[in-house]
Amino acid sequence: MNYKKLGTTDIDISTICLGTMTWGEQNSQEEAFEQMDFSLENGVNFWDTAELYAVPPKAETFGHTETIIGNWFEKTKKRKDVILATKVCGPARDYIRNGENSFVGKNLETALHDSLKRLKTDYIDLYQLHWPERNVNNFGRLGYEHKENEWNKFEDVLVELQKYIKQGKIRHIGLSNETPWGVMNFLKVSKDKSLPRMMSIQNPYSLLNRSYEVGLAEVSIRENIGCLSYSPLASGFLSGKYRNKQFPKGSRMERDWDFWTRYRKPNTNEAVEEYFNISEKYNIDMSQMCIKFCEIQDFMSSVIIGATTMEQLKTNIESVKVKLDKEIINEINEIQKKYPNPCP
User: Fold this and answer.
1) How many angstroms separate the CA atoms of 106 and 49, rounded?
2) How far apart are CA 108 and CA 196, in angstroms?
3) CA-to-CA distance for 57 and 51, rounded, in angstroms?
4) Binning pLDDT at 50, 70 and 90, where does residue 240 land?
5) Catalytic one of 3, 53, 242, 282
6) How far apart are CA 93 and CA 52, in angstroms?
7) What is the mean pLDDT of residues 10-19?
8) CB 275 within 8 A of CB 334
9) Chain-wide mean pLDDT for the chain?
């Protein structure tokens, strides 16, 4: 396994992060336990979850993933072996604290304490804001139209988070689905006001969506606030399993077709086929090639994998052993020129 520092901390996190959002929906607790056991045994010390999970989100499965992780901690007594990240919802569905839009006050207090209770721990290593309170383009939405809404000032949010850091309930904080403007403002306020600093940005990054390179990559490198890339396999499209419009039984597309629309775009299949051809040409597993491309980016801290089977998990973790030479990278970049970011 490979490791990098989490932001400016002295914490070493595995460059492969165990994603968990299918646990409690596509995966049972027993299957999740097997994934956690295997991941930790193979050097994956960094795990990511969220109060919102399982996904697709719904009232009856809200918080289930954290509960499963907490049950594993209770059973194994291995909480200290894991760098644990979770997230607090932004403006949300009405079944989550009545949909309140707030990263301060009672809403944040309740969210944090409920996560701690479900996870059966007394601290979170990395507590992330799942998406901004302000109206921004995220989750694949384009065509920015400025609409102001009520949201808490960056300083007020950092002051609130500082309170729980001082209490020892949070070690470090991070962002998710955030924009360059938001990241830089959080960092500026932290510096100017001597407040806690954001250590990571959990945003999408894959061969079908390299938009992180446009603005956030420079921010990550210059400000030492690395990317935690989610959807490195674009919800399974970059594993090749949906080639030729095949949707295996039990897969996300087969189970929840109406929810997983982000990667079903006009040029998705064409781009996937070209990347598949590269993997075949060089005799590299397609999933491993796509994950490794993410891992080797200078702005990357860790790549979040999400597997529903042990075979997928083993394949994804073993991507750290793959080497992509310049010829392969050049061919990948040529496909990006031909089909630039088909799934932003």
Assistant:
1) 22
2) 16
3) 10
4) very high
5) 53
6) 10
7) 98
8) no
9) 95
pLDDT in tens, 103-153: 999 999 999 999 999 999 999 999 999 999 998 988 878 888 888 888 999
Q: How many domains does the chain have?
A: 1
Residue 127 has what DSSP assignment? E
Mean pLDDT (whole number) for 326-334: 98
Average pLDDT over residues 207-226: 98
Q: How many CB atoms lie within 10 A of CB 159?
A: 16
Instruction: Assess whether 212 carries a catalytic annotation.
Output: no
Containing structural domain, residue 247: 3-338
By C-alpha distance, which of 27, 20, 99 is closest to 53? 20
Would you say residue 343 lies in a domain?
no
pLDDT band at 31 (very low <50, low <70, confident <90, very high): very high
**Measuring CA to CA, how many Å separate 259 from each of 254, 256, 263?**
11, 6, 11
pTM: predicted TM-score of the whole model, two decimal places: 0.95
Asked whether residue 309 is assigned to any structural domain, the reply reads yes
Question: How remote is the C-alpha of 198 from its chain's centroid?
Answer: 15
Contact 310, 36 (CB under 8 A): no
Tokens at 326, concatenated:
């310049």
pLDDT band at 101 (very low <50, low <70, confident <90, very high): confident
Picking from 50, 40, 17, the residue whose alpha carbon sits closest to that of residue 304 is 17
Q: What is the DSSP string of 51-117?
A: TT-SSS--GGGTTHHHHHHHHHHHHH--GGG-EEEEEE-SS--TTTGGG---SSHHHHHHHHHHHHH
In a domain, 136, yes or no: yes
How far apart CA 134 and CA 150 sit, in angstroms, is 7
CATH number at 193 reads 3.20.20.100
Closest CA to 302 of 10, 12, 23, 65: 12
Helix (H, G, I), strand (E, B) or coil at 252: helix
Pairing of strands 300-305, 170-176: unpaired
Provide the CA 221 distance to its chain's centre, in angstroms.
Answer: 18
Sorting pLDDT into bands at 50, 70 and 90, what band is 250? Answer: confident
For residue 247, pLDDT beyond 90: no
In a domain, 344, yes or no: no
